[in-house]
Amino acid sequence: GESVGLHLPTLSVQEGDNSIINCAYSNSASDYFIWYKQESGKGPQFIIDIRSNMDKRQGQRVTVLLNKTVKHLSLQIAATQPGDSAVYFCAENINNFNKFYFGSGTKLNVKP
Amino acid sequence: DAGVTQSPTHLIKTRGQQVTLRCSPKSGHDTVSWYQQALGQGPQFIFQYYEEEERQRGNFPDRFSGHQFPNYSSELNVNALLLGDSALYLCASSAGPDQPQHFGDGTRLSIL
Question: CA of B38: how far to CAs of A55, A61, B48, B110, in Å?
Fold first, then answer.
């Protein structure tokens, strides 16, 4: 399944499928990006980050892709599990000021 | 190793009152940032403290103020509370101003 962030705020996928959550950022000066997962009643949980000198970074079951040309960021989750159900935010940081701007998030529903 | 801790978890105030929220950063972290998260939205940056000084500030009125102590813990103060200040207030800490931020579970503030 694929999401385009604000235009499709909810993404439903089947357990075991791969998920792709997209994020369009606004400022070409943004040079550091973080993906967060937020479960109900909890604070955002760090998933993975990427700096603008890279275009891909992999973690455990997750991959972040950065396309600076079109100012687009994506989070790929492999073999999605019910525990991945949450709201996912991308956050951008401009010029190393460590003042992160968050999007409105994408809700991921994983169907068993 | 404790993560970011915030207190209290919930708070109810009335309009015009003042409130103080507290944050203890993750062990080894010296930078604290505060965010406001309205229901259904992404966190919005309020300000960041490093070396006991406010280093960055978001678009919030000066009713919002803060402090960082020598042990790196921090307080967020809000004066003259308005109904619109009802939100989840999140604290994030990092090992430096340009490092990944890790969040606590927040303080849910309700204004009556």
Answer: 32, 30, 19, 11
